[in-house]
Write a structure and sequence with these properties.
Order of helices and strands: HEHEHEEEHEHEHEEEEHEHHHH
Strand content: 15-25%
CATH architecture of the largest domain: 3-Layer(aba) Sandwich
Structural class: alpha/beta
Largest sheet: 10 strands, mixed
Radius of gyration: 22 Å
Number of helices: 11
Strand order of the largest sheet: 1-9-12-8-7-6-2-3-5-4
Number of strands: 12
Number of domains: 2
Distance between the termini: 58 Å
Length: about 350
């Protein structure tokens, strides 16, 4: 069994050896049960004090921790405490709950970055979204190696990756060229929090040293029995609008959903239903490669002409596109605030 300090050495070496442009990898095509036994039992994880080894002489890895449940959520304290065994930790999280805000960023007003007291952890609160927190946290803390998002108080399975603020924090890390790991669990009962802690440490021990995984979504069942690699569950939902009224009789509405299909084998939801911890590698490139190939084959446009062009790179054209992007409403509002 490898000591936590040995994992830290691997992570520092891997992070320093990474190329400047990290390329996301595709999601796993199926499920593979990670080899069980002592190596993957939570009881097999050794603390630095148990291993007796010293901290590596190289720079300690920097781990930025964020979430969408707010800086005052007990889940972020649990995750930060576990991460502190692997490197230097700083928490940067929203000042209020930002669940289901997706990958929104704040461009219409300035953001604040305020120190906040958390026991034994350097922490800052931001009046913005999870993506804001990661972007600002990476700006304020030079040379961040990895971003951990969570521990979310609720699962983020299947289609939830589209609207989850927790996943958005991890994806924002990937957009910045950092590694992002999102970790979620069911809302805890009294016994769940302590029982999950060794499994959280084991998940970090598996993922942190591996630079080939730039973006991963991790979900914990209430009583785990091991780890599996999974793919995203994509199933149809019945989206419902539930009307109601406030005390003055004014109309209000709740959004809710119910699944129309069962979980597909090998997916994150399938794993959680069977008490396996789900680990899903993700990527930022949403291109449907099969559909793209089919379109080029059956309905070609001007691809041949575009590919045969021998025109030199035109900096003015690139600048023009950037100027057009800057004219978007959100960017324009940010520019006005600077005046």
């Amino acid at each position: 069994m490898r000591a936590v300090s040995d994992v830290e050495d691997d992570l520092v070496t891997a992070s320093l050896d990474l190329p400047a442009q990290r390329l996301p990898i595709g999601a796993a095509s199926g499920t593979r049960v990670v080899k069980q036994g002592d190596a993957h039992s939570p009881d097999g994880v050794q603390s630095p004090s148990q291993s007796g080894s010293q901290v590596a002489a190289t720079r300690r890895v920097r781990i930025l921790v964020s979430n969408d449940d707010s800086i005052y959520s007990p889940g972020i304290a649990t995750l930060a405490a576990a991460a502190s065994e692997f490197g230097n930790v700083r928490v940067v999280a929203p000042d209020v709950e930002q669940s289901s805000t997706g990958h929104a960023i704040t461009a219409s007003r300035p953001l604040s970055y305020r120190p906040t007291k958390l026991p034994g952890i350097e922490a800052y609160r931001v009046n913005g979204t999870p993506a804001d927190c990661v972007a600002l946290g990476a700006y304020q803390w030079d040379r961040v190696d990895v971003v951990l998002a969570g521990l979310n108080q609720g699962l983020n399975l299947g289609n939830a990756i589209w609207h989850s603020g927790t996943l958005a924090a991890a994806k924002q890390a990937a957009l910045l060229g950092l590694r992002g790991i999102a970790l979620s669990a069911p809302p805890p009962d009294d016994d769940d929090s302590e029982a999950l802690k060794p499994w959280i440490r084991r998940a970090l021990e598996i993922l942190l040293p591996d630079p080939t995984l730039p973006l991963v979504n991790v979900n914990f069942p209430r009583r785990p029995r091991g780890f599996v690699w999974t793919r995203v569950s994509v199933r149809r939902y019945d989206g419902c609008v539930v009307p109601m009224t406030d005390p003055r009789g004014r109309p209000l509405y709740w959004f809710t959903t119910s699944a129309l299909e069962g979980a597909e084998p090998g997916t994150d939801r399938w794993a959680i239903e069977r008490a396996w911890i789900s680990m899903t590698p993700l990527r930022l490139d949403l291109t449907d490669e099969k559909a793209l190939a089919a379109c080029r084959s059956t309905r070609p446009l001007d691809e041949k002409a575009a590919a045969s062009e021998n025109r030199p790179h035109e900096p003015d054209a690139e600048l023009s596109v950037r100027e057009d992007e800057a004219k978007a409403p959100a960017a324009a509002a940010a520019a006005e605030s600077d005046d």
